[in-house]
Amino acid sequence: MRMPHPTPTSEPLPFDHLYSGLGMRSHSDAVPLSPAAVAHFDALLHEIHADAPRVDIERLQQLVDWLLNLSADNAHHVIDSRLERVQELRAMVTDPAWDSDYAMRARVAKLLDYIDRDDDLIADRVPMLGQLDDVLLIELSWPAFASEIEDFRDFCAYRKLAHPGGGASEQRQQWVNDRLDELALWQQTHAVREAHYAPPWITTSTLFRVG
Question: Up-side HSE of residue 152: CA atoms within 13 Å toward CB?
Fold first, then answer.
């Protein structure tokens, strides 16, 4: 059974390991951050994913330090690998064969609206750092999307391989039916493997006698 990945990439941002009040920062003037803007960002994050960690200025500045201390190639990879996940979210909510519920669509819409803005917490025009707030929002809100994205990826792979016929709703229903059949087969196979071939009260001594 597939388990959704809790972060958009296999290498999470170190945000959970950053703490407030850790003293001097080497790039403390790299990005001006206002308390009001950070509070607004944190509120939006928790509208999308209520269980996300809290975001404050100290931790954001430490994340800025962390990113600027990476090589240019690694820093671009951190940004680009997460922005790629946004394309999956766009595809998911625009695919006519995928019927995300209203709450999911609303969460995706809030995320995309923020990502598509130029002047947000950190203006996109700021070199290297301009999309750090975008990828942080993607990172910390990802658990709200992870399970459905995993299902959508599986559906897309199934559709490409199996070429189900019919319209959008029929294609999705065929995917659901085939996955339920696979699950039933797995459960049956597992039950057979775990079952005793003879009643538990019959021992080997009663089944096999010598002489």
Answer: 21
Residues 6+ apart with CB under 8 A from 136: 13, 15, 55, 60, 63
CA separation (Å) from 169 to 97, 148, 164? 6, 17, 11
142 contacts 8 by C-beta, under 8 angstroms: yes
Distance between first and last Cα of the chain: 49
pTM, two decimals, is 0.78
pLDDT digits 0-9 by tens, 133-184: 999 999 999 999 999 999 999 999 999 998 888 888 888 888 988 888 776 6
Long-range pairs of 3-8 with CB within 8 A, sequence gap ≥ 24: 4/143, 4/146, 4/147, 4/149, 4/150, 5/146, 5/150, 6/142, 6/143, 6/146, 7/139, 7/142, 8/81, 8/82, 8/85, 8/138, 8/139, 8/142
Angle between helices 146-162 and 168-194 (to 10 degrees): 100
